Amino acid sequence: FFKQKTAYEISACLVGSEMCIRDRRRSYLRKLTNDIEETVSLSIPIGTKLVYFDRIEFHWPMQLNLEAGDQLTLQASASGKLYLSSIEEEKVIQIFKNIKTPKTAKNTITDISQFKKEIKKIKNQGYAFDDEEWFNGMVGLSVPIFNSDEELCFCLSTHTAKSRKDINDLKKILSVMQSSANNLKKVLFKD
C-alpha cells in the first residue's frame, strides 16, 4: 500500500552502533524534555500506523501514559496528522475513510473536507498541532525528522494538559522543537 522502508533499511543508514545511537538520541530527548518542561516522544511510521519509538517523561502529577510500541491515532494526534500530510492526498483520504473517524474528543475532525484543509495546512507549514482533537483537555505539537531523501522517518512531539499549556504556548516552543529535530536528525542518520 505504501512504500515503506524496513527496520533493516532504516537501521542501515543510522549513525554508529545501536547503543551509541540510543544514548545520544535519549540525551537530546532528555534535554528537550527539560527545556520545555513536558514529555517528548519520537514516533515512527510503519505502513498505515504511527508507533511510539521512544519517550522521555517530564515529572508532572497528571500524565498521559503511553509507551514505546503504542500506536497513535492518525486523524487526531499531531504526529498522526503530520505523518498523513507527508503522503499522497488520495491515500490520506482512503485512510481517513477507513478509520471511520471516531470522535474521541470535542475537536476531533470527522468531516472529510475539513480534514483535507487541515492536512493541506500542515503540509504547507511543516508541523502539526492537536487542539483537543485526540483527548479533551490535551494539546500537542509535532515536528518532522526527514532522512536525506526528504522522507518523513520520525515525528518528534509533545502533548500536554491544556491547564499547563495551550496552543499559543506550544507555538512559543516550536523553534526549540525544530532545533531538537535537526539535532536528532544528525544523530540518527549518516548523511
What does this structure look like?
The structure is a single chain. With 191 residues, this protein is of the alpha+beta class. Helix content is 42%, strand content 21%. The protein has a 6-stranded antiparallel sheet, sandwiched between helices. Helix 3 (78-85) packs across helix 5. The longest helix has 22 residues, at 167-188.
Q: Which descriptors apply to this entry?
A:
191 residues; alpha+beta; six-stranded antiparallel sheet; 6 helices
User: What's the rounded overall pLDDT mean?
Assistant: 85
Strand order of the largest sheet: 3-2-1-6-5-4
Total strands: 6
Strand fraction: 15-25%
Helix fraction by DSSP (H/I, runs of at least 4):
40-55%
What pattern of helices and strands is seen along the backbone? HHEEEHHHEEEH
Q: Give the end-to-end Cα distance, rounded to a whole number of Å.
A: 27 Å
Molecular shape:
globular
Please report the number of helical segments.
6
List the helices and strands and how they pair.
Blueprint: H1 7-12, H2 18-36, E1 40-46, E2 49-56, E3 71-72, H3 78-85, H4 89-99, H5 112-125, E4 128-131, E5 138-146, E6 152-161, H6 167-188
